[in-house]
Amino acid sequence: MPFAVHLLAFSLFAMGSAEFLLAGVLISAFAVGVVIGGPPLAVLTLRRPRRTTLVVSQTLLAIGVAIGLPADDFTALIVTRFLCGLTYAGFWAVAAVAGQRPGL
Q1: Contact between 90 and 45 (Cβ < 8 Å)
Q2: Could you tell me how far CA 56 lies from the centroid of its own chain?
Q3: Would you say 10 and 61 are in contact if contact means Cβ atoms under 8 Å apart?
Q4: What average pLDDT does this structure show over 82-97?
Q5: C-alpha of 87 from chain center
Q6: ∠ at Cα 59 (43, 46), nearest 5°?
Q7: What is the structure's pLDDT at 102?
Q8: What is the pLDDT of residues 10-44, one digit of tens each?
Q9: Cβ within 8 Å of residue 58, ≥6 positions away
Q10: CA nearest 41: which of 81, 88, 79?
Q11: Which residues contact 73 (CB under 8 A, 6 or more apart)?
């Protein structure tokens, strides 16, 4: 095989790896927020009105996304993804119960 084909293959591998690595790091930051935030938020929101908790967590998620979108600093992006994971965990904790019992 010509050297150019090997060079093209290596270039595609490097470019693809760089893209997937960044996406994986951001997804991992979100997942860590979900894992850390899930149990405490489930307990903290246990006696709160479900509808209010769902709306507040959705609002906080939207704010986190709005802050993270224009971030030009990787640290800020990681922090906002983590915080979005926390709010997602709070939403999930309440939505799982609300789905089992009708009448939010």
Answers
A1: yes
A2: 17
A3: no
A4: 90
A5: 9
A6: 15
A7: 64
A8: 998 988 888 888 888 999 999 999 999 988 988 98
A9: 87, 91
A10: 88
A11: none
Burial of 70 (0-12, 13-18, 19+ CB in 10 A): exposed
pTM for this prediction: 0.77
Please state the rounded mean pLDDT for residues 45-68. Answer: 91
Of 95, 94, 71, nearest to 83 by C-alpha is: 71
Q: What are the backbone dihedrals phi and psi of residue 69, each rounded to the nearest 5 degrees, phi first?
A: -60, -50
3-state secondary structure 13-59: HHHHHHHHHHHHHHHHHHHHHHHHHHHHHHHHCCCCCHHHHHHHHHH
What was the pLDDT predicted at 65?
Answer: 92
d(CA 104, CA 81) in angstroms, rounded, equals 28
d(CA 43, CA 31): 19
Structure tokens at 3: 């050297």
Residue 103 confidence (pLDDT) above 70: no
Six token digits for residue 85? 């994971």
Instruction: Tell me the HSE value of 48 on the side-chain side, using a 13 A CA sphere.
Output: 18
